[in-house]
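Forwarding these from the shared drive since the link keeps breaking.
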Amino acid sequence: MKPHPAIKKYLGFVLKFLIAAGIVGFMLRNPGEIVACFRNFDSRYLIPAMFFYGIHILFCAWRWRELAVILGIRLKPLEAVSLTFQGILFSLVIPGGAIGGDVVKMGAVSRRSASGSKAEGAFTVLMDRIVGMIALFTLELAILGPAVPLLMNVSIPELQLDAKTKILGILLLALLALAGLAASCVIFFHRRIERMPLFGALMRRADGITHGMVSRLTAATDVYAASWKQVSLLTLGSIFFVHLMTVIPMFFLLSGLGVEYGFFDVIVAVTVGNIIGLIPLFPGGLGGRDAAAITLLAASGISGADAKTAQLIYTAIILVFSLTGSVFLVLDPQHAIDSGRNEAAEDERK
């Protein structure tokens, strides 16, 4: 008998957690030195670290709300914050990696949208993810050139990396960023894709099967393309208030350990860690993000013990904010909101 698909899915999820736990366990295999670093850590630095990490989540909620407004989908500020935290929670606890929570957000916002605009409501979540991806990969390409000396200094004794392998890894990061940008931006060129005979026929066929959903989504994409100035500003803001804002907590954590560090080196370590964390192999980025950040922090001259301790505290902060989503999940009064109350629907009727 073949295993039930749900069983296979969750067995795979458990396997991902075991892989993440194995990576973290391997990186922290000398607990004595980490305990010593913890004793020297000034816990007062946790306050600004958590504050700035929280800022990036609030900006994400605001960005999504602004993208929804462009399509006429009205989200109250607290509603956007609640669903954003819930999405972060589900990115951690359901299959799908870092984007798993987006599926939950799509379902939630669809339930809150008026009849006839549910697909557009879900599409705002996808567009929010696209804007975030474009910002992240743009930042990566901007720092990759100056980061070459640091990346060439990476040392992993267990792998015995030579210069050619390191260069290949740098090229792979560049290709990953370019591919990510291409995949994120291709949606805005759907009209050209429609003119290609094969793709056009497939899109028309899919439109018929989904009762016009493809046409509605392409029309929504046109709305975003027409609002390119606002979308561009949200993308630029995401570079500073999302991706670079996740770097600032690491500055405070390293300062709390009394470590001397280079600002640019830390930016590279956290950014590359965030990119590796997008790989669906890691639940919520755990494991992959930690290994990449620790390795690069160590390559910058920070001791292995300090790098591991700082990243361990950083991961704990991420988990605290992720689990905060469970509070919003329980207290959220909008779970069963009647779509007729959606302000966008009222505007349409008027």
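-- next protein --
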Amino acid sequence: MVDPTSDLGEEDEASAPRCASCGKPALGAGRRTVTWVDEGTVERRHFCSEACREGWE
């Protein structure tokens, strides 16, 4: 498994996950990810900033 905090294979805008709130690429130090398990399946949402993550709650 690659350390998610490393810059190895750093994503670019085209391959980055999209923010669940605004749709922008979720890249860089401001990126946030929320993960949970729902009926045995891992779910996750990516956000481009803390503000977008808070708006999703």
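The two ends are 29 Å apart (CA to CA). Helices lie at 50-56.

- D.
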